[in-house]
Write a sequence for this structure.
């Protein structure tokens, strides 16, 4: 059984076809890239996979179950975590609370338990605190636990967002342009971090990225879309030398 299987995925917005007949399969712990020019439909794929959009056609199956029509929090609860191109941290909460709140779907106690401060509530809060600190420590972020994200360097904010995604213990991690806005030093650190996460947590990672150095360094398989249509897929070497990919990025004159 595939971890994730997408077949015939199509998304229309009015008269615009943003994505057409997209298919992909993850068997387990792959590290796969999704690339294409601006406006190609990459983030639409992630929005469909994570439940922010309902597809016009096609199916998305996670661990054998169709997740079409499920809400984002339900898909998260099944083990699909996601980061965003534009960092979406709660800037008025501490870093620790940003990690804690991501676990609300599995808090293990009822509203009554919370209101009455029962023993079940206490154990649930201790477990959430322990999980949050463990993930911060594993990413060398524990010394930022009490800080507000807005006071941190941009590269550290990226790491906090990834930590928040990992705190749900996902089977599949979607990274939407994790290198966006980072300087060259931070990008090298990000490459090492993503590789470490993939090796340590034994999860599948699917990433959208414009920084080709990141994709080519990390991904063993790359899928390329342009105007919502798949134009190529293969190994990094195959993608680098594919004339359709070169044309999509640089135009006919380059070829």
């Amino acid at each position: 059984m595939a971890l994730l299987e997408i077949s015939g995925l199509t998304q229309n917005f009015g008269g615009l076809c943003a994505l057409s007949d997209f298919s992909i399969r993850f068997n387990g712990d792959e590290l796969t890239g999704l690339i294409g020019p601006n406006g190609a439909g990459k983030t639409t794929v992630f929005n469909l996979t994570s439940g922010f959009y309902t597809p016009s056609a096609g199916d998305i199956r996670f661990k054998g179950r169709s997740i079409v029509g499920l809400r984002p929090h339900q898909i998260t609860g099944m083990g699909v975590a996601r980061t965003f191109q534009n960092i979406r941290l709660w800037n008025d909460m501490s870093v620790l609370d940003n990690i804690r709140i991501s676990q609300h779907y599995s808090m293990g106690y009822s509203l009554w338990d919370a209101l009455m401060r029962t023993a079940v509530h206490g154990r649930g809060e201790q477990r959430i605190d322990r999980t949050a600190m463990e993930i911060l420590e594993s990413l060398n972020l524990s010394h930022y636990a009490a800080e507000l994200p807005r006071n941190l360097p941009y590269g550290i904010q990226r790491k906090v967002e990834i930590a928040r995604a990992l705190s749900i213990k996902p089977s599949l991690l979607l990274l939407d342009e994790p290198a966006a806005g980072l300087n060259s030093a931070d990008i090298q650190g990000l490459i090492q971090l993503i590789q470490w996460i993939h090796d340590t947590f034994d999860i599948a990672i699917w990433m959208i990225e414009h920084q080709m150095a990141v994709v080519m360094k990390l991904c063993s398989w790359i899928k390329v879309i342009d105007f919502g249509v798949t134009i190529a897929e293969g190994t990094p070497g195959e993608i680098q030398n594919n004339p359709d990919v070169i044309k999509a990025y640089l135009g006919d004159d380059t070829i």
Notes: The longest helix spans residues 119-138. The mean pLDDT is 88. The beta strands are 4-13, 16-26, 31-35, 57-62, 65-66, 80-82, 172-176, 204-208, 221-226, 229-234. Residues 4-89+155-250 form a domain with the Rossmann fold fold (CATH 3.40.50.300).
